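Usage

Read records sequentially. Each one opens with the input sequence:
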Amino acid sequence: MGGSAVFDPEWTKSSYSSQDAGGRVEWAPSVALATGTVPLRDSKAPVGSHLAVSSAAWQVFVNGVGREG
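and closes with the structure output:
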């Protein structure tokens, strides 16, 4: 591994994202585990702005999406 999990994270595509060629949400599980904050980004613009939410808020969101989908 080249750097720490926080400064050089491995990004994972969310399974809730569209599977077509369009945008996908990516998140960094290693950062979430290390800090309790879930970083999110757009796979089409990986060097653009990122969003970070608490692990608790992310869990509420994921549970809500699961009930709706």
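Summary fields computed downstream for this record:
- The two ends are 36 Å apart (CA to CA).
- Residues 13 and 26 are 4 Å apart (CA to CA).
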